[in-house]
Design brief:
single chain; 359 residues; alpha/beta; D-Maltodextrin-Binding Protein, domain 2; 2 domains; seven-stranded mixed sheet; four-stranded mixed sheet; 13 helices; 17% strand; globular
C-alpha cells in the first residue's frame, strides 16, 4: 500500500495546465482557470507528504509548487520571524500556530476558496490554538511515543523511564528541540507539558543533563536512518513516522508511556507576508481533497483529519488504536499550548544550559 519515501528538499515542480481543482467529495474549489497561474511557496516538515500530490496539484491547476522543508516548529518560526523568509503556506503545530496568531504572523483565510474544509472532522475544528478557526486548516495529527528496537531493548517499555535507563547508554535518541525534549522530562516527572512553573522546568532540564551522557544523539529527521538501520535502540518520536520506520525495520515497536504523552495537530496556514494568497488557498483546498488526502495518508501514515479519507482506509488502518485512538487513550494525552513570553525565554535559556552541559 505504501510507496518508498524520499526526504524532499527544496524543489520546483512545473507541469501541464488543466482546468478544475476537482477530485473532491466535499466541495468544489474556485475554478483555477479564473485564478492567476504562477507559484505557491510551501514550507512543510520533512518526510511529510507524498510528493506525487504536488505533481497532481500542478497538473490540475497550472500552479507551480516551490517546496521547502523544516525540522522543527522553532526552526520554522525563526525562518519566518527572524530571517524574513517568504512562504505562502506553512504547516506548524498547534502551539506554534497559537503563538503566530498572537504575534500577528498569520493571514486570515478566505474559506470561500477552501470548500473542502467541510470534510474536516468536527472534533478538529475551532481548536484551542485557533478558537474561531480563522487561520488554520488541519493537515495531519497524531500521538508521540517511544520507538524501540525489540532486539536491543530487553523489556517492553511502559514508561518514559526507559529513555533515562543507564543500561541503554549510547543507544538513546532525544529530540533536538526544546519543547519536545523538555516535554519528555516534564511528563516523566509527572508535570504538565504546559507548566509555567520555572522550578518544574528547571527540574526537567536537570534531569536531561543527567541523561545527556546516555544520549547517542539529539535528532529530528535523523532518527529515521538511525532506527531503521539499528544503530540506536530507543527514541521518542511520532506514531506515523514509526509506521514508516517499521516498514523498513520490522524489529521496531512502539509504546505510549503510562505517564501520558502528546497529542498534536499540524495545520496549514498562510503567513502575513505571503505573495500568493489565492494560490495558497487553492493549494490548501486541494490538500483537503479526498484524492490528495488519501495519497498522503497512505504514504506517511499519519492520522487524517478528513472524514472521507477515513472511510477509504483499509480496516486495519482505520481501526489502529494508536492512529485513531479512543477516549481511553486520549484521556492520557495532552496537547502543547502557547506559553507566555517570559516562559518561552526561560525555555530558551534552559535549552542553552542543556546544550552547553558536559556529556
Amino acid at each position: 500500500m505504501k510507496k518508498s519515501l524520499a526526504l524532499l528538499t527544496a524543489s520546483a515542480l512545473a507541469f501541464g495546465l488543466l482546468a478544475g481543482c476537482g477530485g473532491t467529495t466535499s466541495g468544489e474549489a474556485k475554478d483555477p482557470a479564473s485564478a492567476d497561474k504562477g507559484v505557491v511557496n510551501v514550507y512543510n516538515w520533512g518526510v511529510y507528504i507524498d510528493e506525487s500530490v504536488l505533481e497532481d496539484f500542478t497538473a490540475e491547476t497550472g500552479i507551480e509548487v516551490v517546496y521547502d522543508t523544516f525540522e522543527s516548529n522553532e526552526s520554522m518560526y525563526g525562518m519566518l520571524k527572524n530571517e524574513g523568509a517568504s512562504y505562502d503556506v506553512v504547516i506548524p503545530s498547534d502551539y506554534m500556530i497559537s503563538r503566530m496568531i498572537e504575534e500577528d504572523m498569520l493571514e486570515p483565510l478566505n474559506f470561500d476558496n477552501i470548500p473542502n474544509f467541510e470534510d474536516i472532522d468536527p472534533a478538529l475544528k475551532n481548536p484551542d490554538y485557533d478558537p474561531e478557526n480563522l487561520y488554520s486548516v488541519p493537515y495531519m495529527w497524531g500521538l508521540l511515543g517511544i520507538i524501540y528496537n525489540t532486539t536491543m531493548v530487553e523489556e517492553t517499555p511502559t514508561s518514559w523511564a526507559t529513555m533515562f535507563d543507564e543500561k541503554y547508554a549510547g543507544q538513546i535518541l532525544m529530540f533536538n528541540n526544546s519543547r519536545d525534549a523538555i516535554g519528555v522530562a516534564l511528563k516523566y516527572l509527572g508535570y504538565s507539558y504546559n507548566t509555567t512553573d520555572q522550578a518544574q522546568i528547571t527540574e526537567a532540564v536537570d534531569l536531561l543533563i543527567q541523561q545527556k551522557p546516555l544520549v547517542q544523539s539529539y535528532v529530528m529527521d535523523e532518527i529515521f536512518e538511525k532506527m531503521q538501520g539499528g544503530s540506536a535502540a530507543i527514541g521518542a518520536y511520532y506514531y506515523g513516522d514509526f509506521l514508516t520506520m517499521q516498514e523498513i525495520n520490522p524489529d521496531l515497536a512502539f509504546c505510549l508511556p503510562e505517564e501520558g504523552t502528546n497529542l498534536y495537530v499540524d495545520a496549514m496556514c498562510i503567513p502575513k507576508n505571503a505573495e500568493n494568497k489565492e494560490n495558497a488557498e487553492i493549494f490548501i483546498n486541494y490538500m483537503c481533497s479526498t484524492a490528495a488526502g488519501l495519497k498522503n495518508c497512505e504514504e506517511i501514515w499519519y492520522s487524517t483529519p478528513l472524514l472521507s479519507v477515513r472511510e477509504e482506509l483499509d480496516e486495519e488502518t482505520a481501526n489502529d488504536p494508536y492512529a485513531y485512538p479512543d477516549e481511553s487513550i486520549l484521556a492520557n494525552c495532552e496537547s502543547f499550548q502557547n506559553l507566555p513570553a517570559d516562559i518561552l525565554a526561560f525555555y530558551d535559556s534552559e535549552w542553552t544550559r542543556l546544550m552547553l552541559a558536559a556529556s
